[in-house]
Amino acid sequence: MRVVLTVLLALWLTGGPAVAQTGEEPAPVSETGEVIPTFPDPSQRQRVIAAIAKRKEQPAEQVVAGLSRDSVAITASFDGSEILIYGAIKRETPIPDGPPLQIIVTVEAPSRPLTIWRKERKAGIWINTEKVEIGAAPGFYAVATSGPMNDILQEDWDRRYRISLPLALRAYAGKLAVEDAVPFTEALIRLRESNGLYRLDEGSVKLVDQTLFRADVRLPANLIEGDYKTRIFLLRDGQVMDVYRAPIEVRKVGLERWLYRLAFDQPLIYGLMSLAVAVIAGWGASAAFRKLRRA
Amino acid sequence: MQIFLPIAEVSVNAFTLVGLGGLVGLMSGLFGVGGGFLITPLLFFIGIPPAIAVATGANQVVASSVSGVLAHVKRKTVDFRMGGVLLAGGLVGSGLGVWVFTILQEVGQVDLVVQLCYVVFLGLIGAMMLQESIRALRRSKNPTYRKRSHQHMWVHRWPAKMKFRASGLYISVIPPLLVGVAVGVLAAIMGVGGGFIMVPAMIYLLGVPTKVVVGTSLFQITFVTAFTTVMHAVSYNTVDIMLAVLLIVGGVIGAQIGTTLGARLRAEQLRILLALLVLLVCGKLALDLFLRPDELYSITTEAR
């Protein structure tokens, strides 16, 4: 046990800079374009830091964790990937009394702006009429918890760290053209949940003796590239006691990467190459079959 | 075997794609159509984003028409002059089409317009083919029917006349130019070669002899779809070469098998089958437009 903890601690220490990112969430932009400070709001931040400091005085509980892999390579045969997130709770004192410890793990892809359209019947056919533009929504977002989300996480802490799915979507971009945007964001979550891109797995984090935990997060095949963020929240009584952060790098590799870069950096060459492939294939096939027929 | 498409960013079964290409190739070999008008909607059905389906469809048409045009050049059934005029119009039309595509993408109506185009054109073509093949079937039973020979049409009175020796025509260049433009626009918006529009237009509007129609239209299609592919690749990065290769592999093999098979089967009955198939695809697309969709919402991500 102690050995494991030491190893994990060493891991955690080497991964130190990752921990230092705490609270660097980008602030959302309001309808009028000004920045709404949610978290880290300076005063709030002071309060949180104070709260954490206070807890540190009374020996705090901290997360130490590791990932089974810190990079995912998208190859031509890529059809999803499994990431094991494991760790332990480091504490100097016996396990405190009160409600048991809970863990929430989130894995988040980089955010991209997007538009949600709603169809309406116009002149007999269904066409896109209304839209809501979202400033930034993660291309992938998975939440794994050790218990029912509503029971183990208080709302204000959720809002502060933007843990649950609706909060992970950043604010609307530009002026809202519709009266009620909620059905739009609900549709976004529904659509992406059915694609496996957004996921809430309640109770999937296994916690042993309030000390050791593991979570398996499945990354689907339709991933986007980028630097993914993993966050592990340590919760007691609905409050966030500690956060551990680690990056996961998702990259196309090999042929995939080469083609993708070529298509975006040298589109003309890429286009001509696609043409060449088509011409050679068309010509080659007819030549080959003519030979076959003669033989 | 799942394969991850680098540009479409979706993972699909490689065999499905080869099979799809093969199926469409088989039909193009059997019926002498490009197959682009079937492959693009089929790509929609398996979940390829429409913009990528259209651009990659155009690339696939290049491959199938190259092998076709080579055969026709050998048989000397290509009117290069007519092809050149059609091509000049086609390039203008293709540029125009890609520009229209940009606007549609901005207002979020690409899917709608592409689908509408498909419903309208597949419906028209299907109905025309059905009527034509039923008539042909009757004609083969009733040998007294005689086709009218040379006829003068309204297009013959337009100015700027030009001699098209291979077609034996002396007509104005404006109608073929316009036909070319129309086909170019369709190629860019629908990802098709446009042979199914051009062939009837050449026969009924321009009076080009049937002998050189297919070769000449293939000649024009090869260049217009090639131009469209490059335009789409440069302006939107929507050509997925991996997807194209899989479709082409299936397509060229299917086309060769289809050609061999086609020589042994009865053409009129096959045409009826193709017409029904086209109407079926059209019906499915139309239902999607007219019936209340299960999901009213859709997501579009901005260009990367």
TrEMBL record, chain A:
Keyword Signal carried by entry: yes
Stored Pfam families: Alph_Pro_TM
Keywords: Membrane, Signal, Transmembrane, Transmembrane helix
Stretch forming the signal peptide: 1-20
Highest taxon above the source species: Bacteria
Transmembrane segments: 268-289
Protein name: TIGR02186 family protein
Organism: Paracoccus methylarcula
UniProtKB/TrEMBL annotation, chain B:
UniProt xrefs under InterPro entries: TM_pro_TauE-like (IPR002781), TSUP/Inactive_protease-like (IPR051598)
Location within or outside the cell: Cell membrane; Membrane
GO CC, one annotated term: plasma membrane
Transmembrane domains' residue ranges: 12-39, 85-104, 110-130, 169-192, 212-234, 241-258, 270-291
Keyword set, alphabetical order: Cell membrane, Membrane, Transmembrane, Transmembrane helix
Primary residence: membrane
Superkingdom in the source lineage: Bacteria
Membrane topology, record value: Multi-pass membrane protein
The UniProt record lists the keyword Protein biosynthesis: no
Similarity comment: family membership: Belongs to the 4-toluene sulfonate uptake permease (TSUP) (TC 2.A.102) family.
Protein name: Probable membrane transporter protein
Organism: Paracoccus methylarcula
